[in-house]
Amino acid sequence: MATIESPTTASTAPTAAKSSARKPAATVTPPAAPVAVKKRAPSAKRAASATAKPGPVAARAKTDKPTVAPGTTATPAKAQVAVPTEAKVTKEKKPKMVRDSVTIPKAEYQALDAMKQRAAQLQTMVKKTELIRAGIKHLSSLPDAAFLAAIAAVPSLKTGRPSKD
After folding, report:
1. Which candidate, 79, 88, 101, 104, has a CA 20 to 30 Å from the CA of 39?
2. Which of these, 83, 84, 66, lies nearest to 75 by C-alpha position?
3. Do the domain assignments include residue 89?
4. 29-79, pLDDT tens digit by residue?
């Protein structure tokens, strides 16, 4: 007569057998030496297409690393390039900008607009700021007598905001 085992006893019996039959801990073995992989020569079709098309593939083919004989660990010597100190380019620093407001008579403000239109007729676009800066450069290049004459020609204004008229 066969005995019927319950599912719980049947499932625990094989597990108990497995746990007692465990293998001992595996010993660690050092990794094998790297195996040299031999590269295949490019096919005739691939070689022809690489030489016909100048591009990244052709450039890559020209810059392949030189092969080293098996068993040698020589690395190629790096070429030292002497950089002349005079050849180094220094970047020019941008001038620091200052924001300021000025009060000028309406007639002189309209003169700025007229000069902008004059520059546009001469196929040159110019901003009010550029016109003012050009005037400053011109004044700074004048000799003392001409500079004093230009300053005397401009009347002095009351500082501050204009009144609302």
Report:
1. 79
2. 66
3. no
4. 666 666 666 666 666 656 555 555 555 555 555 555 556 666 666 555 556
Residue type present at position 2: A
Instruction: Give the amino acid at 126.
Output: V
**Domain for residue 95, yes or no?**
no
Rounded to whole angstroms, how far apart are CA atoms 36 and 39? 9
The answer, as to whether pTM is greater than 0.70, is no
Helix (H) or strand (E) holding 145: helix 144-152
Residue type, 39: K
120, part of any domain: yes
Q: Computed over its alpha carbons, how large is the radius of gyration of the chain? A: 44
Domain hosting residue 117, numbered range: 106-152
Residue 94 in any domain: the answer is no
Q: Which residue has the tokens 């004044």?
A: 139
d(CA 111, CA 87): 47
